[in-house]
Structures are given as C-alpha cells and as structure tokens.
Amino acid sequence: MKAVERAKLVRSLRQESRRLRLLVLVIGFFLVTLTFVVVTRPDALLFNLNGRLSVDQAPRSLLIRQRVDAAATAAAASRRSPDTLAAAAEDPKVVDGDSAGVEVNANANVGAGASEDEKRVLTSEPEQGKKAEEATQSELLGGEDEEGRKGLRKGHQEDKEHKLTLPTVSNYTIHEATDDSDNGKQEVVADRKADAGIQLVTDVDQSNGGDRSHQPALDNIEWDKPLCDFSNFRANVCEMRGNIRIHPSGSSVMYMEPAGSMKDEQWKIKPYPRKGDELCLSHITEVTVQSSKVAPECTKYHDVPAVIFALTGYTGNLFHDFTDVLVPLFTTASEFNGEVQFLITDMAIWWTRKYAVVFEKLTKYPLIDFNKDNEVHCFKHAILGLHAYMEFTIDPLKAPQNYSMVDFNRFMRRTYSLPRDEVTALGEVPKTKPRLLIISRQRTRMFLNLKEIVAMAEEIGYEVVVEEANVNSNVAHFAKVVNSVDVMMGVHGAGLTNCVFLPHSAILIQIVPWGALDGICRVDFGYPAEQMGLRYKHYSIGVHESSLTDQYPLDHEIFKNPLAFHKNGFEFVRQTFMDTQNVRLDCNRFRPVLLEALDQLNQ
User: Fold this and answer.
1) I want to staple 183 with a disulfide (CB 3.0 to 4.6 A). Which of 225, 268, 318, 563 is the partner?
2) In this structure, are residues 246 and 379 in contact, taking their beta carbons and an 8 Å threshold?
3) Of the candidates 592, 559, 36, 153, which has an alpha carbon nearest to the alpha carbon of residue 396?
4) Alpha-carbon distance 135 to 158, whole Å?
5) What is the pTM assigned to this prediction?
6) Are residues 285 and 398 both part of a single domain?
C-alpha cells in the first residue's frame, strides 16, 4: 500500500515539475518578445487601450494627419534640452526624422547647396506644433470661429520666421521605416502616348541632347551637395545640382561625388505628396537617392532639369488629381518655362492623356516612363518629389517664385484657352442674367429636390445650368461650362474642384452635409477658393434637410452630438455622413444665400 502511495506521490511531483517548467518557458518567451518589441519599435503599437484603431491612424483628410504629425514633431523637439539641440546641430551623424519611424533631431538635417538660393531649411518649432494641434481640433472637426481661420493662415506662414541653415551631413542615411509612411516600395505602370501630343522616351532623345556626342562637361561642374528635405509634413523632396545619374531600372538617382570625397549618403523617397498615408504610399515606387563614386555610364544627356514624381496614388478622383499632382506639379515645374524633363513613376497612360494639355504647357519634352525605361539619364539639376503644402493650396511663402493659387487659377484658364478672366458686373451686358451652375451628383450627396432648387433660382433671376462632374467628364468641355458662369454651387465633393476654371471674383457656394463637417469642408474648398481670388460661401444644412432622418430617429446621437462621431476617425465619418447622406435643400432657408450672391455680383 505504501509503495502505491509513494508511486502516486512521485507521479504528482513529476507533473508539478512539468507544469512549473512549462510556466517558466511561457513567461520567459513573453518577456523576450516584449523586450524585443520595446527595444526595436516602441512606436509601432498603433492601438489604444480599448483595442480600437486610434483616430490619429485612421485614414482621413491629409491636413488632419499633417497637423497631428507636426504637433508630435514639435512636442518632441520641445522636450530636448538646448545642449542636446546644439550638439545635434554640430554632429553630422544625427539624423532628422518624422512620423515615419525615422529617428531624428529637430534641428539637424541635410545641409547647404552651392548657393544661398538653393539652400533649404527645416523648421520644426514647438510653437508651430501648438498651432497645428489647435487647428486640428477647432478647424478640422467642425470649428468655424474666426480665430481658428486666422490661426490656420498665421500658422501656415510663420514657418519662415525661425529658419536654421543646416550643416552638410556626413553618413546621412535614412533607413526604411517599418510603417512605410515615408519609405516603401512602389510599382509603376505606363505605356507609350502617341495621339495626345505626348510621347514616352524609349530611345536617344536628340531634342535635348540625348546623343552621347553631346555629352556636357560634367566633370568640370562645381559640385553641389544633395539636399533632401524631410521637414514638410506633406511631402519629402530631394533637389541636387552637379553630376546626377538617374537609373530608372535600378530605381535610383545617383549623385556623383568628386574624387577624394569620403561621403556615403543615402535617402529613400516615395515621390507622391501623401506623406504619412501608408495605404496610399504602399502602391508607390520607392526611389533611392545616393552619393556615389561608381555608377553606370550615361546613355542619355539632358541640358534641362529633371523632375521625378509618381502618379498612381489616389489619382482618378478629381480632387486628388489636383491636390496630389496638378497643383504640386505646377508649383515645382512652372519656374522652368517648359525647359524641364518629367520622369514619371507609377504612370497611368489614361491619366496623362486626360491632362495632356497641362503637360504640354509645363514641359516641351516627351514624358519618360520611369518604370519602363532602361537608360541611364544624366542631368545637372534634378528634383525628386513635388513641392506640396496643404490640401489644394500653394503656400506663396514657401513655393518657388512665390507662386500662389491665383497663379494656378490663371494657369488653368490659359491652359484650356478659357475666355473669361473676370466676372462681369450685372448690368454691363444688357438683358444678360447671371449664370448659376449646379453641380449634380448621382450616387451620394445628391440634391433630392433638384427641380425645386432650379425653379427657385430662376425665379430670383438666375440662368441655371445643371451639370454632373465625374471621372469620365471631358475636362476641356467642363472647363468651358464652369468658366461661363458667375456662381457655382454643389454639395461637398470632388466636383467642386472645377472651381479652378472659374473666372476671378466668381462665387463658389459649398453645401455642407450634416455631421459637423464645416471645418473639413472649409479646408478642402473654402480656403483654396479664397486663395484663388474667388468669393466663397458655405451653407450648412439643418437636420430636416438631411436624408439621415430616414435612417435614424430624431433623438439619435447622430443629430444631438454629431461631433462625437469624429473620434472614430475620418473613415468612419466619411461612411456615416458622406457616403450615405443626400440633401433635400430647404429653398426658403437657402434663398437668402443666392440673393446675397446676386448682391455681390452687383458690386
């Protein structure tokens, strides 16, 4: 009996020993994993305590993301001691980084070029971050107070006040960020353009010195330092002068260092201005910029500057066509007066055909499909990426040649040969009524009582034109329609982007859907319209004008406190208030807005 009990006891002790060893192994594995995560990427945990994706990480209007990123960068800078900042400015090994997961110093980045005009400075001030945070909360999530609007403009302009000229950085390497916000892989597609006046370069380009016999004296050029500016919270841009070799098949831009140089620098750029938008940038080709003493021999020589940029991204949506590509491309390339070579990654041939006339105005040379080109192109001046600021705007304090949205508006009218540069005061042309264009929609944010709106507008003296703007619209035709009117109105959406074709001093009326969307709507179209020299009005619908009343009871939180829904992120806001909402405009309530517009046209 004792032997049996002893055997049971031994088995029990063995089981307890196994359990103890298993527990120790589990705890040890957990501690090793936790240590690895904390040491390698402590900022990779994107989820908050309740397991929901943080609002700062949700896809949303880029400006909201920009403001949050700017605030975070400034806050990090403000926590550093003056001694740390001073040491970093002197130490060329300190790397400037951002929300992409790159370790940085707020005051250290790539340094000077060959001349003062070519230098770029980085600004990352705590004060700027504070303004950004205020703008995020007040303007973008429904704030409409005048101080908020002033804050946006002031914060947008004060970057210039605290400039730092940076030293040349040695061993400056930006490593690939694991969250792909700045650096990642792109794929590019494109084909030959033949019938739209734009052709892709596939052989030696004789028109701009493509023949080897026209090789410029690159070896005698005074060498400039490559400059990559990562300070802008919307776009990273590299600009360099000297012996530059662009090798598309290697997705690289090589800056040839003079003999004796010991530098080994490298940057990685996704040349599409949606910095921080991982979903978008995951489809964009990554281009490596590096200083080198060894590179493939040139097969084409160019006497004009190069501008390299991507197309795929969010293009195909009219608003993104302009805010992501056309406005930044105008800002970056206009100063060259057509003497510039475009190399396009991720090129969609249908898109270049759609905007062929714009390309013809900006460059005299055939487009180069970056991803299908096997040449080694040699330039003396190259820009990788596009200068972009906020949504659908140009910052004249930062833009080359101080370009502004007034310049862009004028450029679009000239590009499409539009006849009206300015609205005509009422009465100057006898028996002529002011023309009102109503942008109609067919899927979401539709006018449910369009006929009633048209009848009311005609009754008070307008000649009404109704047009639908979509991705398939003929740009030239629609541009002429828009340019012929004095007032354009529509519910918030991409169709309002056509305001770029309006004559100066015309009136844009934006109908703001229910959902505390005033701030977002003003950022997307209000400020850009005003900066173009247009007169802007917005009309926020009431609960009784929203089709959401057919989906929710009137005592629902969506009507009582719509701003509370914004904490779930922009995607949630878009699906709740934009994708499923239509508008039944209260003509009695809206009538004064059209009458006020008539009064302004008389002034």
Assistant:
1) 268
2) yes
3) 153
4) 14
5) 0.66
6) yes
- The answer on 270 and 351 residing in a single domain is yes
pLDDT tens-place string over residues 419-428:
999 998 776 6
Between helices 587-602 and 450-459, what is the axis angle to 10°? 40
Nearest to 491 by CA among 457, 443, 452, 530: 443
Q: Are 349 and 198 in contact (CB under 8 A)?
A: no
- Regarding whether 554 and 465 lie in a shared domain, the answer is yes
Beta bridge partners of 422: 504
In this predicted model, what pLDDT tens digit does every residue of 10-69 receive, in sequence order? 777 777 788 888 888 888 887 877 776 555 444 333 333 333 333 333 343 333 344 444
338 in helix, strand or coil?
A: strand
- In angstroms, the Cα distances linking 213 to 205, 216, 223, 256 are 12, 9, 23, 20
Q: Residue 247 CA to chain centroid, in angstroms?
A: 26
Spatial strand order in the sheet of 535-540: 463-468, 435-440, 487-491, 507-512, 535-540
Span of 387-401, 418-432, 567-581 with lowest mean pLDDT: 418-432
The number of folded domains in the chain is: 3
User: Is residue 48 a part of any domain in this protein?
Assistant: no
Structure token digits, residue 109: 């980045």
Asked if 208 and 308 sit in the same domain, the reply is: yes
CA dist 97 and 104 (Å) reads 4
Domain range for 15 is 2-40
Residue 194 within a domain: yes
Question: Helical H runs in 80-145?
Answer: 82-90, 126-138
Half-sphere exposure of 538 (CA within 13 A, CB side): 21
CB 382 within 8 A of CB 223: no
Q: Are strands 306-310 and 341-345 parallel, antiparallel or unpaired?
A: parallel
DSSP secondary structure string for all residues of 228-287: EE---SS--EEEEEEEEEEEGGGTEEEEEPPTT-----EEEE--SS-TT-HHHHTTSPPE
d(CA 402, CA 415): 20
